[in-house]
């Protein structure tokens, strides 16, 4: 064991390679059972990439939580608690949960307006053409690359800090291990692996919280933590916080981080095919529920770990005999939680942290790999290289892209490591690079008036404004010095993030209002309709029905949908029971209204109603208030465990029984 690491190097290799192999074997087993005992075969491209669009809400919610739980969710959230006190966990959790909640509305519009697409870029291509497609493909890939790099940087920094494992080896071995299980299982098995990861993740988070606030000899109660935090503030008050305290929402840097977090995370949800893919894989009737549940359950993850380990790091790094020390580079790399776990729980804490990070990073990596593979397969290969691919070719290209992207993830994370760009830096920068595409992408599937030129110009000019503003303000505030350190300032990052999303959004909306498009959603509703019926192995296409019938019936019901004469005359073959189609669209409209009300209410509560009065009143929590805060964070973890750890099992009971009956029949020799 290296003198400076809490675990031996072998533990790092053991977890990365051993657990990678374990999950690959598990995936082979799940895929085999899925193929043998259920109707879902991964030899179908539709099943491999979109899980036949039939996944129930609990499993999708677990998949959302696991894709959205990055290394940064655990590490960066705790680093914000270390830097800003309790406002850090709040702003991290609320500033990144609202996008998932709002995406519930997009998910329902997606099911209404492009029910058979494989990627959101297919919608952009069908609606706005090739230039828009290429423009947003750039922002889509930029999002996946930034997210993947942060994942691998965070994961490898943790593994090498805890075990001394070679960082480059970790950078490559983590994504390659993940690619093996993604290759084996495709989308559905990946969601099942996500579920198992999420279950263990919640259990470890609960164990950390109970140790920090219940059993630890060093802290052990909210009251003792309050004392230690008060002492830390006396020793080293936080500039910009009320009374320099860690126990207040009144934190200037915390609030700036909150804004950065909100902007950046809009980009990493709305531009990331991984979330569209979960909406696509979802059963249409329950996609809204899945995203609302996912957002609510996920909120507890950063809030819980940052309240326990982030604040523990503050307590342990101060006082007469600090148990841990943290350099600013280590804080930027997200290591306060890692060091706190080791100091509070010794080797068992370090091992739990290693496993936690491994699970979070691998499940988020798997989401990124399958997302990038879908973009490359459908939007590059299928759009520009081979417009009429066979199912075999789609599967072959998907597999190749998953493995190729795993190698790319390792290489790019290694490069960032060498040039000294940390996960924390990328986290604050991401909104500047990708925020500009958020509004056009969201409007592509929700607003018929949004015009193509406005969307393309908005995204490109927003990007240029964001980057120019970020670098310009850096130069102005730092005497012309532009480097990694100066560009990482609060105001520098804030300027870039706000300009990018603001300019992109304003240009897109204002131009579209001045020159409104009048898009016919039937064009996007027809994406892949013919292909789907041809390639879906098990679907039994119903007799063809005409759009005219659908449109007329729809008019009878609500009198709103306008029929395009051109489309009304075409015959459309659909995959689902056609007689259900109109009722289904009505159901989706209701679901959209429900998503809008619930998501907007939660957003207003989480971003305005709860934190802002606490900020403006400069309230510093007394012991009783802090104890309530700790209890809420713990309860939220248990609620999350119930929502995405226990509920999916209940939901899957019939499928599990079917598999169990199949296995029993096999054992009795009654099945061939
Ligand atoms: N997924 C995030 N932003 O932690």
TrEMBL record:
Residues in the signal sequence: none
Membrane-spanning segments: 12-33, 54-71, 91-110, 131-153, 165-187, 199-219, 253-270, 291-317, 337-361, 394-419, 425-447, 454-473, 493-514, 594-614, 626-647
Keywords: Membrane, Transmembrane, Transmembrane helix, Transport
Entry membrane topology: Multi-pass membrane protein
Cellular localisation: Membrane
Gene3D superfamilies xref list: Sodium/glucose cotransporter (1.20.1730.10)
PROSITE patterns named among the record's database cross-references: NA_SOLUT_SYMP_3 (PS50283)
Family per record: Belongs to the sodium:solute symporter (SSF) (TC 2.A.21) family.
InterPro entries the record matches: DUR, Na/Glc_symporter_sf, Na/solute_symporter
Ranges in coiled-coil conformation: none
Protein name: Urea transporter
First-listed, main subcellular location of the protein, grouped into a coarse class: membrane
């Amino acid at each position: 064991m290296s003198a400076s690491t809490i675990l031996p190097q072998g533990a790092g290799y053991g977890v990365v390679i051993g657990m990678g192999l374990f999950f690959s074997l598990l995936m082979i087993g799940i895929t085999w059972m899925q193929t043998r005992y259920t109707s879902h075969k991964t030899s179908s491209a539709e099943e491999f990439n979109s899980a036949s669009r039939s996944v129930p809400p609990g499993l999708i919610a677990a998949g959302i939580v696991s894709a959205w739980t990055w290394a940064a969710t655990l590490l960066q959230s705790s680093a914000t608690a270390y830097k800003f006190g309790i406002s850090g966990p709040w702003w991290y959790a609320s500033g990144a949960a609202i996008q998932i909640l709002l995406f519930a509305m997009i998910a329902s519009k997606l099911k209404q307006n492009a029910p058979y697409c494989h990627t959101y870029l297919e919608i952009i291509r069908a609606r706005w053409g090739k230039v828009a497609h290429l423009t947003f493909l750039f922002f889509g890939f930029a999002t996946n690359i930034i997210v993947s790099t942060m994942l691998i940087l965070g994961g490898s920094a943790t593994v090498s800090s805890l075990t001394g494992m070679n960082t480059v080896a970790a950078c490559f071995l983590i994504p390659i291990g993940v690619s093996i299980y993604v290759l084996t299982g495709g989308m559905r098995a990946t969601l099942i692996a996500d579920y198992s990861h999420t279950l263990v993740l919640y259990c470890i988070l609960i164990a950390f919280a109970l140790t920090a606030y219940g059993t630890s000899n060093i802290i052990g109660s909210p009251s003792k933590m309050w004392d230690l935090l008060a002492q830390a503030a006396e020793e080293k008050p936080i500039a910009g916080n009320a009374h320099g305290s860690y126990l207040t929402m009144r934190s200037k840097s915390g609030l700036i981080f909150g804004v950065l977090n909100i902007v950046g995370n809009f980009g990493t949800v709305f531009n990331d095919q991984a979330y569209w893919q979960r909406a696509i894989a979802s059963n249409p009737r329950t996609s809204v529920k899945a995203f609302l549940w996912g957002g609510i359950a996920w909120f507890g993850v950063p809030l819980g770990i940052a309240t326990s380990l982030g604040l523990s790091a503050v307590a342990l790094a101060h006082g007469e005999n600090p148990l841990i020390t943290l350099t600013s580079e280590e804080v930027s790399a997200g290591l306060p939680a890692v060091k706190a776990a080791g100091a509070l729980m010794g080797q068992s804490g370090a091992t739990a942290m290693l496993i936690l990070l491994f699970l979070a990073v691998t499940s988020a990596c798997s989401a990124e790999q399958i997302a990038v593979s879908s973009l490359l397969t459908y939007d590059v290969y299928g759009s520009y290289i081979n417009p009429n691919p066979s199912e075999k070719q789609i599967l072959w290209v998907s597999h190749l892209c998953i493995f190729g992207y795993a190698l790319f993830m390792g290489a790019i994370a290694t490069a960032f490591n060498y040039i000294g760009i940390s996960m924390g830096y990328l986290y604050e920068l991401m909104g500047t690079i990708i925020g500009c595409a958020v509004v056009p992408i969201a409007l592509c599937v929700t607003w018929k008036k949004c015009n193509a030129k406005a969307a393309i110009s908005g995204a490109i000019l927003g990007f240029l404004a964001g980057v120019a503003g970020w670098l310009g303000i850096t130069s102005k505030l730092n005497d012309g010095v532009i480097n990694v350190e100066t560009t990482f300032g609060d105001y520098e990052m804030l300027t870039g993030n706000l300009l990018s999303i603001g300019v992109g959004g304003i240009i897109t909306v204002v131009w579209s209002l001045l020159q409104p498009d009048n898009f016919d959603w039937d064009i996007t509703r027809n994406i892949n309709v013919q292909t789907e019926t041809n390639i879906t192995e098990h679907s039994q296409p119903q007799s063809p029905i005409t759009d005219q019938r659908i449109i007329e019936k729809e008019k009878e019901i609500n009198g709103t949908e306008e029929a395009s004469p051109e489309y009304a005359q075409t015959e459309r073959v659909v995959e689902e029971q056609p007689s259900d189609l109109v009722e289904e669209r009505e159901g989706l409209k209701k679901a959209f209204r429900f998503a809008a009300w619930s998501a907007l209410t939660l957003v207003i509560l989480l971003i305005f109603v709860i934190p802002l009065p606490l900020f403006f009143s400069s309230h510093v929590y007394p012991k009783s208030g802090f104890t309530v805060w700790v209890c809420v964070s713990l309860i939220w973890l248990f609620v999350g465990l119930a929502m995405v750890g226990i509920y999916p099992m209940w939901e899957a009971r019939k499928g599990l029984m079917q598999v169990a009956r199949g296995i029993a029949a096999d054992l009795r020799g009654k099945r061939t």
